[in-house]
Amino acid sequence: MDEKGQASAEFILLFGGIIVVVLLAIYMYNNYVSKLNGEISSKEVNEFNDGLENIKDYFK
To answer: How far apart, in whole angstroms, are the C-alpha atoms of residue 31 and residue 10?
Structure first.
């Protein structure tokens, strides 16, 4: 009888499901980036700093 109410409830459930999926994706991405943080800072930053030290010697 009341199809407008049913459509509204379906949209609310649909958007709720989308929000749950987006939040899970953000949580998983956050964990992935956190794990990469240690690897990036330990290897690439040290190599970059070494390169800057080598360049600095040319400008003394």
So the answer is: 32
- CA distances 21 to 11, 54, 57, Å, are 15, 47, 52
Q: Say how far apart CA 43 and CA 45 lie, in whole Å.
A: 6
Query: Domains of the chain: which residue ranges?
Result: 24-60
* Residue listed under structure tokens 């400008």: 59
Q: pLDDT for 2-47, tens place per residue?
A: 677 888 899 999 999 999 999 999 998 887 777 766 666 677 777 8
